[in-house]
Amino acid sequence: MSVSLGGDSVTAILRRFNRVQSNAYPSNTSSIRRYTFRIASFFGYRWCFPGRSFDSELWKQNKLQLGSKVRLGMADRIVARHVLRGMTSGQVTDMLGEPPATDYFSEWDLVYWLGPERGFLSIDSEWLVVKLDQNDVVADFRIVRD
């Protein structure tokens, strides 16, 4: 079925419109979409899984290295994934080592120094603190600054 509009049929007008429409975007639109998706996926992954994967030996080696951000990255991942939830104090100390003696954060049961705080001026330190319940099981944990 063809309707005539001043010498042009509707189908001819639609074909012309589709040709103009298809030339409105560059031919590499699909590659732009692919790269946009990859970038969004990367940042989405980094947002959902911050820090770095945990390595017990590396954690224990980097106890007091001032310039190292290794423990900070691992602690970010531990907190984000709730790794310590439900562990006993023995399991935590097997994983993280014995906590050093400190006068900081006396209301918490286990306190681990992570390193100088992140940021431009690192005046304070960041710590991983763990609170145990009456059954010696992790009840709460977080990263705090002194």
List low-pLDDT spans: none
Overall, the morphology is: elongated
Mean pLDDT: 77
| Helix vs. strand class | alpha+beta
- The percentage helix is 25-40%
Oligomer: single chain
User: What radius of gyration results from the CA coordinates?
Assistant: 29 Å
Q: Classify the beta-strand content into a percent band.
A: 15-25%
Query: How do the SSEs run, as a string of H and E?
Result: EEHHHHHEEE
Counted by DSSP, the helix tally is 5
Strand arrangement, major sheet? 3-4-5
According to DSSP, the number of beta strands is 5
Kindly report how far apart the N and C termini lie.
80 Å
Q: Main sheet, how many strands, which sense, barrel? A: 3 strands, antiparallel
Q: SSE layout and pairings?
A:
Blueprint: E1 4-5, E2 8-9, H1 10-22, H2 29-48, H3 56-61, H4 70-80, H5 89-96, E3 110-116, E4 125-132, E5 138-145
Antiparallel strand pairs: 1-2, 3-4, 4-5
Summarize the structure.
The protein has 146 residues and is an alpha+beta fold.
